[in-house]
Every structure is written in C-alpha cells, then in structure tokens.
C-alpha cells in the first residue's frame, strides 16, 4: 500500500485542519490518513472527537475488489484494480487504486480501517467464483479480522456446497443471508439460529423438511421445486404450530393461479376484494387489498396475496 501525495492542509493550524476535515467525505478522510504518519494521527484524533461519525464497512469480494464506507446516505468505495491507467481515478464516489496484488492490499485496507478507526464490517458481498483457490483462506481471514455481519450476500456460478457450508460454520452472522449460489440437489443447508432474514435465489435444493427447519422471520425462495401439495402441508404445519413459529413474511414462486386450489385446500377465508388493510411486510407498513386469510391455533392470522415478479408469480404470506 503506497502513501498518496502529501496533503497541503497538514501545514494549517490544528483548528483549521479540523474545520477542513469536517467537510470531507469519509473516502477523502480515509485517503488523507494514508498520506503520512502525521496525517494518520490527525485523522484518528478527529474521529475520536467526532463520535457522531459512525461509519461502517461494506466488503465487496469479486473480480474487482472494493471496500465500501457506509454511514451517510451515500456509499463511498476504494476499488482495488490491476489497471495502472486507472490509478487515482475518481468516479461517482469511487476512488480507484492500482495494485499488483489486489487481494492482499484489499485485506490491508480493511485491517487498517478496523484497527485505526474502529469501523466495523457490517456487510459482505462475496462472489465465491472470483478467487476459487483462495475461498477457504479468505473465509479464515474474515473469521479472524471481522466482527459478526448483519448482512451478507454469497454469489457464484460454480457449485458451492463446500464453500457455503464452510462459511456458515466459521462466520458469525447477525441477521441477513442472501444465497445466490449454485447448489447441488442433495445439499443440506444448516442455518445458524441468528439468521432472521433468508433469501435463496436458486432454491431447487430446498425440500419441505429443510424449509420447515428454517427458524427465520422472513423467507424468500426463488426457482423452487417445492410442490403445491408440499406448500399445502407447510401451511397446515404453520396453522398447528408444528413448524416455523417465528415466520412473519414468506414469499415463494408458484406456477400459476390454478395452484392456489391445491395450496389452500385447508381452512381459509377469502377476504372481500374491497377490504384494504395495512399490514407489515417484515418491518415496513404494507397495504393489502383483499387476500386470503388462514388462522393459527394460537389465534394469529396470516394473509396471502399474489405478487408478479418478472415472468413469475409469487405467493406472499404476511403473519399478523
């Protein structure tokens, strides 16, 4: 990691420096701290005196590595590149840095931000196909240097059973998991109990038994092989409190409107199409017109409606 050019404002009085620093973006502040040992000390002091600047890091591990800085309405990025012609280029809140070894320098930037500014890593986007040979070592590095994630997104175009399992067995996750990876049909997904939100893009490996074991508050499944009869059983189990007690929001692809006849072959009520209710979709208010209601044995209601998604139909359940 090379030091950038010395910043002229280092020659200003300390009070003037503070005033200038308060106008800079977190990306500029971070870059300023790399100028010299003196600028590093000034930047660290500035952050300690301005606790309202509670920044967090977003790690983007794919072919083009990036360290995002979150804490304002915008996300600022350091992007590690192997193209010398783009070194130092600024573009839409992004600063490009040339590196002969982007992955090693990426780790250095992250460790520097954590060690010097105490910025936690809250989010991770990890393409498991970008550095296949180093996936295990990257996960080991994350385990050693990074605090629990609140959100992570795993992606790949390769079958990733081994890496997904290794990740979940070694990385602590606070709440939110998105799986956009290729998974083999016989994969058994075992989730940490801390995961509250689960979204699976290629969920054809998910069986009824696996779905029933997911103790999440929000579940979204795309490209599923779960049948209409199995969905019918899934909702019957929910109604009798046999599984998924904590489920609040559920969304799953269905083939067509005729599927509802099989799925709702259970006690239910068709709500008048003129009835408009404000429910909650996860934590957000959501208006539902009409719908289908089922009741759990403890009195809790779940309302269903159909939502178009691209060329598919999704059956959405909101418990209330």
From TrEMBL:
InterPro entries noted in UniProt: F-box_dom, F-box_Sdz-33
PROSITE patterns for this protein: FBOX
Provenance organism: Caenorhabditis remanei
Pfam family, one: F-box
Name used for this protein in its record: F-box domain-containing protein
Domain F-box intervals: 6-61
Taxonomic placement: Eukaryota, Metazoa, Ecdysozoa, Nematoda, Chromadorea
């Amino acid at each position: 990691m090379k030091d950038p050019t010395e910043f002229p404002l280092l020659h200003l009085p300390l009070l003037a420096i503070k005033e200038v620093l308060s106008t800079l973006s977190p990306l500029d502040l971070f870059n300023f701290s790399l100028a010299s040992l003196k600028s590093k000390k000034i930047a660290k002091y500035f952050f300690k005196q301005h606790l309202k600047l509670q920044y967090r890091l977003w790690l983007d591990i794919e072919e083009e590595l990036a360290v995002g800085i979150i804490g304002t309405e915008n996300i600022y990025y350091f992007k590690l590149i192997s193209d010398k012609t783009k070194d130092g280029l600024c573009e839409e809140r992004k600063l490009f840095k040339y590196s002969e070894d982007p992955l090693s320098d990426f780790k250095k930037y992250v460790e520097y931000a954590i060690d010097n500014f105490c910025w936690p890593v809250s989010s991770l986007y990890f393409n498991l196909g970008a550095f296949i040979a180093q996936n295990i070592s990257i996960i080991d590095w994350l385990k050693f240097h990074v605090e629990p994630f609140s959100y992570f997104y795993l992606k790949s175009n390769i079958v990733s059973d081994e890496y997904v399992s290794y990740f979940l067995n070694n990385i602590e996750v606070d709440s939110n998991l998105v799986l956009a990876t290729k998974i083999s049909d016989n994969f058994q997904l075992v989730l940490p109990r801390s995961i509250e939100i689960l979204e699976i893009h290629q969920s054809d490996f998910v069986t009824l038994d696996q779905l029933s074991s997911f103790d999440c508050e929000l579940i979204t499944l795309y490209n599923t092989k779960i049948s209409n009869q199995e969905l019918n059983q899934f909702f019957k189990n929910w109604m009798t409190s046999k599984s998924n007690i904590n489920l609040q929001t559920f969304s799953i692809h269905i083939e067509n409107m005729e599927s509802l006849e099989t799925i709702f072959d259970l006690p239910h009520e068709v709500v008048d199409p003129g009835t408009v209710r404000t429910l909650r979709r996860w934590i957000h208010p959501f208006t539902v017109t009409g719908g289908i209601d089922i009741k759990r044995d403890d009195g809790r209601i779940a309302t269903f409606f159909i939502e178009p998604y691209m060329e598919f139909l999704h059956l959405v359940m909101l418990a209330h």
